[in-house]
């Protein structure tokens, strides 16, 4: 998606917005069908008048056939597998020329092909002798079920929809189609090292459905990019200008139940969960497995399970009918769910997870997830997550190889600690990790450690891992071995593997090369790895590998990987009350430290500084405001700061050090988008302050 759509909010934003609102209302009036048709037409270059002429020239029938073939060809134009696209549509779409119908048919054919593949896997299963292959076939059945679900959601989404939400809808479609691609891929991954030809047969059975799913993703991506380039006012802007204001007013979207909000703000002592699990018998159940039977089916109300302190040795599956479940514990080291399933003992990686979460809208707070199989047992997942719009807050995930598996969909991790050895965060979700700690543990003697192995398969998938203000560090037991068992930031599990590490602390365990190849030159040109303004001895970029996939990212481009944009966090994270940074975060942090620490000596000598420092502060804040995308929000906190400045004046002598720290703390707390200001801007503000202080001295 182009960045232009977000643009910069100018000073006369209100005026602009008013005009936009009118325009938007007008556009909403247009039938969605026409718009989608129009967009597709622009996207793929269907020339309506040309078609019209042809239709009247030819006989009614042949005209229709060629028109619908034209529409099909146009729809299929942006896809990678054109032949599969045209073939499937021309045999299944009748003679419709409506692009929306054609897209729906494309999804439907993909679904049918997957269903065929499932039948195929049942046949193969009958004949299968290798137990690993047999399990892989079982997995495929489950995974195909998920894939069909996501395609079905995509199909249904294209019914009647609110045009003003078109950008969200296209975002959802991309996420779901990407998940459908991933599930098919995971099915095939399961056959690695199996004997017999079940793997090859499944590969053949899934060939067409895989191509058609990726075609669907290509078509949707094309529409989204055309919409962006048309600069339709409803598109893109809305997210920042409206949605972000909802929580600011203290009103939450109706779908956020009171329970969810209350819980995230409260402590276990003050909550009323739907069910309490306690090992010591003081709750309704002693195990989590029993408690999850109480979860209502497909509920849109948050169902809260309070798991009291204790070590729960069980395997938990929050399946797809269990939506909006929240688990809250007594702390990530106190409430622990633990297991030890693993690959070496014959279980496919996909099914080794101690806890697996599928149902949409899952939240976990204060819980530890663990797989204790140990390094010798190879792949052994502590937590697998498919839940769309899921949140993990103050949690801990501990294992060795493949600890955390953010498999599909949108996920948000905040204040979590994740430990492991090889590929210990792996999968193909769109996942943002904020303020998390990635702890490398001691592996087996001959092993290397890799923090991430992101698995993006198609270049259009909106997935990837974003680490923001995280710390990548060594476990004390590993530390002495860091020069023997080398550690890397990541490696490309699939061709388009994508990982962005920004504003984070990278300790000296990470090798100067930074990234590790998967196998030969696989993915080195097509992956997308970027490091943006990291700090620490492991963050130096000078000796990094020089693959084409290692990207230098601009301050503008990096915004695409902030939580507000990358996973549309404003619309589902913000309202839950979980601490959340929608934009960049560390800039404010840098100002605070520089301001308070670096300037200590000079500042300590300043007594009668108040008039200038106050004006300077205000000036720098105003300057910041100008640079910040969300001018409206900036002005709110600016007012607050001005107000407290006035109060401050009543209590001389004015301690600028203390005060500067406080103001900037406020900034970081209240100006959610404050982080979006450019580093250059922040630096200029610092110089302004410095200059005035020197002048004063
Ligand atoms: C083609 O369109 C005509 C009318 O537009 C309709 O009656 C006919 O059933 C359609 N054919 C197919 C195969 O869908
Ligand atoms: C498959 O076998 C090869 C060779 O024995 C091994 O290196 C590899 O790790 C195995 N793959 C898995 C997933 O265990
Ligand atoms: C919850 O689901 C029901 C039934 O599907 C629906 O009627 C209702 O509007 C939903 N409530 C919210 C707040 O979304
Ligand atoms: C989800 O789990 C519940 C409880 O174990 C079960 O009744 C239900 O059938 C499961 N749903 C699916 C789709 O597996
Ligand atoms: C960055 O993370 C650290 C450690 O989790 C935290 O103390 C700090 O407040 C974070 N900074 C910002 C700007 O969020």
Strand-helix topology:
Blueprint: H1 13-29, H2 32-44, H3 48-57, H4 60-76, H5 82-92, H6 99-127, H7 131-157, H8 166-189, H9 198-205, H10 207-230, H11 237-243, H12 245-248, H13 258-265, E1 275-277, H14 288-291, E2 303-307, E3 310-313, E4 316-318, E5 325-329, E6 335-339, E7 355-357, E8 363-365, E9 368-371, E10 383-385, E11 390-393, E12 396-398, E13 404-406, E14 410-414, E15 417-420, E16 425-427, E17 430-434, E18 437-440, E19 449-454, E20 464-468, E21 471-474, E22 487-490, E23 498-502, E24 505-506, E25 528-532, E26 550-551, H15 555-558, H16 563-566, H17 586-598, H18 600-604, H19 610-627, H20 631-649, H21 656-670, H22 679-696
This protein binds 2-acetamido-2-deoxy-beta-D-glucopyranose (NAG) (5 copies).
The site of one 2-acetamido-2-deoxy-beta-D-glucopyranose has 2 residues, from loops.
Write a structural description:
- The protein is of the alpha/beta class and 697 residues long.
- Among the domains are: 67-230, Butyryl-CoA Dehydrogenase, subunit A, domain 3 (Up-down Bundle), CATH 1.20.140; 259-576, Pectate Lyase C-like (3 Solenoid).
- The protein contains 22 helices and 26 strands.
- Strands 1-2-5-8-11-14-17-20-23-25-26 form an eleven-stranded parallel β-sheet, with helices on one face. It has an eight-stranded parallel β-sheet with strand order 3-6-9-12-15-18-21-24, with no helix packed on it. A four-stranded parallel β-sheet has the order 4-7-10-13, with no helix packed on it.
- Strand 1, helix 14 (288-291) and strand 2 (303-307) form a beta-alpha-beta unit.
- The protein is globular, with a radius of gyration of 27 Å.
- It starts with 12 loop residues before the first helix and ends with a helix.
- The model is unreliable at 1-34, 43-60, 232-259, 586-614, 625-635, 648-657, 668-684 and 690-697 (pLDDT under 50).
- Residues 192-193 line the site of one 2-acetamido-2-deoxy-beta-D-glucopyranose.
- Residues 192-193 line the site of one 2-acetamido-2-deoxy-beta-D-glucopyranose (NAG).
């Amino acid at each position: 998606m182009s960045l232009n759509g977000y643009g910069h909010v100018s000073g006369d934003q209100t005026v602009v917005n008013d005009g936009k609102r009118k325009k938007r209302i007008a556009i909403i009036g247009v039938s969605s069908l026409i718009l989608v048709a129009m967009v597709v037409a622009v996207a793929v270059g269907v020339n309506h008048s040309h078609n019209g002429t042809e239709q009247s020239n030819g006989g009614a029938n042949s005209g229709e056939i060629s028109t619908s073939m034209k529409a099909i060809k146009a729809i299929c134009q942006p896809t990678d597998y054109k032949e599969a696209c045209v073939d499937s549509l021309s045999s299944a779409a009748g003679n419709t020329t409506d692009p929306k119908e054609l897209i729906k048919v494309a999804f439907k054919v993909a679904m049918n092909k997957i269903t065929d593949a499932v039948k195929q896997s049942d046949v193969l299963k009958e004949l299968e002798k290798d137990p690993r292959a047999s399990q892989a076939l079982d997995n495929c059945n489950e995974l195909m079920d998920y894939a069909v679900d996501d395609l079905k959601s995509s199909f249904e989404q294209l019914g009647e929809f609110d045009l003003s939400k078109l950008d969200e809808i296209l975002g959802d479609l991309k996420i779901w189609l990407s998940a459908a691609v991933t599930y098919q891929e995971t099915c095939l991954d399961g056959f690695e090292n199996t004997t017999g030809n079940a793997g090859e047969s499944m590969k053949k059975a899934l060939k067409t459905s895989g191509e058609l799913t990726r075609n669907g993703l290509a078509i949707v991506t094309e529409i989204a990019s055309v919409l962006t380039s048309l600069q339709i006012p409803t598109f893109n802007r809305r997210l920042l200008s409206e949605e972000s204001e909802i929580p600011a007013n203290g009103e939450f979207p109706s779908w956020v139940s009171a329970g969810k909000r209350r819980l995230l703000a409260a402590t276990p002592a003050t909550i009323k969960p739907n069910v309490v699990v306690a090992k010591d018998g003081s709750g309704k159940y002693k195990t989590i497995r029993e408690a999850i039977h109480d979860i209502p089916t497909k509920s849109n109300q948050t169902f809260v399970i309070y798991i009291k302190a204790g070590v729960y040795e069980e395997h938990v599956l929050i399946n797809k009918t269990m939506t909006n479940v929240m688990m809250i514990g007594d702390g990530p080291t106190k409430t622990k769910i633990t297991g030890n399933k693993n690959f070496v003992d014959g279980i496919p990686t996909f099914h080794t997870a101690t806890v697996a979460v599928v149902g949409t809208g899952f939240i976990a707070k204060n819980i530890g997830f663990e797989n204790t199989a140990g390094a010798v047992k190879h792949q052994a997942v502590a937590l697998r997550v498919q839940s769309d719009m899921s949140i993990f807050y103050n949690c801990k995930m501990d294992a060795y190889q493949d600890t955390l598996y953010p498999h599909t969909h949108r996920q948000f991790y905040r204040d979590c600690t994740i430990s492991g050895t090889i590929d210990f965060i792996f999968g193909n979700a769109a996942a943002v990790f904020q303020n998390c700690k990635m702890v490398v543990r001691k592996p087996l003697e001959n092993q290397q450690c890799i923090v991430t192995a992101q698995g993006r398969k198609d270049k259009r998938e909106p997935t990837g891992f974003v680490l923001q203000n995280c710390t990548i560090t060594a476990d004390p037991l590993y530390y002495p071995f860091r020069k023997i068992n080398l550690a890397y930031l990541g490696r490309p599990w699939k061709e388009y593997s994508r990982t962005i590490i920004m504003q984070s602390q990278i300790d000296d365990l990470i090798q100067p090369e930074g990234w590790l190849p998967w196998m030969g030159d696989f993915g080195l040109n097509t992956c997308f790895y970027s490091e943006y303004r990291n700090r620490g001895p492991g963050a130096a970029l000078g000796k990094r590998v020089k693959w084409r996939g290692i990207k230098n990212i601009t301050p503008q481009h990096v915004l695409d990987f902030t939580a507000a944009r990358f996973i549309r966090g404003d619309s589902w994270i913000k309202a839950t009350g979980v601490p959340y940074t929608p934009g960049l975060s560390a800039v404010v942090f840098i100002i605070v430290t520089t301001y308070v620490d670096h300037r200590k000596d000079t500042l300590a000598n300043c007594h009668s500084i108040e008039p200038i420092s106050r004006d300077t502060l205000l000036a720098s804040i105003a300057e910041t405001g100008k640079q910040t995308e969300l001018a409206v929000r900036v002005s709110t906190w600016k007012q607050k700061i001005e107000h407290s400045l006035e109060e401050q004046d009543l209590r001389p002598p004015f301690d600028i050090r203390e005060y500067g720290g406080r103001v900037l703390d406020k900034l970081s707390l209240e100006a959610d988008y404050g982080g979006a200001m450019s580093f250059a801007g922040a630096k200029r503000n610092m110089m302004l302050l410095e200059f005035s202080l020197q002048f004063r001295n």
